[in-house]
Amino acid sequence: MQTPATDAKIYSAELISSQRITPPASREEVRHMVFRSNELALDSRAGNCIRVLAPGQFGNKYHGRLYSIIDVSPGRGAGAEFSICVRRCSYVDDFSGEEYPGVASNHLCDLRPGASIEFSGPVPYPFAIPEDKNANLLMIGMGTGIAPFRGLIRLIYEKIGGWKGKVRLYFGARSGLEMLYMNDENDDLANYYDQPTFKAFQAVSPRPALGAPVALDRALVENAAEVWDMVQSPVTHVFIAGTHDMLAGIDKAMTTLAGSAARWAEVRQALVSDRRWHELLY
């Protein structure tokens, strides 16, 4: 979407900090950005998004891009501070074949503290936390898909507390350098490794220089007994975040665990029907 809805109210926020969370040696530049808005008490539910309105192109006033809210805390007065995770992107023009910098991501990554952005929202997204603290949470993601998971994990352990169900994170990246919030530059998720209900599993590409896919399916299969037990449990919620093409690898792994495509389709449909299957894909 290039522009906000005509009836959407537009807000402004000031950039407080912009921290690169991938090491300098990584090809990927990903930033953890903190903004302050004095105009809106943001909804802090995990998975909600804002639509950043970057300067538009080709006669458009805005170029809109959704970003998941990672953290929200009370600001001064009636406002709030919030964080988003931004990866500097590029795209290939279908007509010319030329590569160009992504409009919204490069606009954000180039900002310096004190600069302002315009945005609309928040926009609700489907990562509602179950009311039952005994619920199991199976999170599977890639790339900046970890942003809503980081927010969800912090929420259940720091704000809700006393979570008794299993919390499992399977996260993939091309290399260890690109493991967001799980690398030498920034390892925020290490804060939760001592939680008895939380475990994280990393998956990387076996040959990143050759463009080999991330072995996320292998990580799931290597923990087959627990993963399959979780997805069959009536108290498990499955959260998927990342690119659309990761779904094929997840289906492949789950089919292996189930023993057949038909059995996996049956289990997945039960999750969907019970509203325990949640996707946030781009």
From TrEMBL:
Recorded superkingdom: Bacteria
InterPro entries xrefs: FAD-bd_FR_type, Flavoprot_Pyr_Nucl_cyt_Rdtase, FNR, FNR_nucleotide-bd, OxRdtase_FAD/NAD-bd, Riboflavin_synthase-like_b-brl
Pfam family, one: NAD_binding_1
Keyword NADP: yes
UniProtKB keywords: FAD, Flavoprotein, NADP, Oxidoreductase
GO function term, MF aspect, one: oxidoreductase activity
Keyword flag NADP: yes
Cofactor(s) listed in the protein's UniProt record: FAD
Boundaries of every FAD-binding FR-type domain copy: 8-129
PROSITE patterns linked to this entry: FAD_FR
Entries under PANTHER family matching the protein: PTHR43314
Protein name (Swiss-Prot/TrEMBL): Ferredoxin--NADP+ reductase
Species this protein is from: Sulfurisoma sediminicola
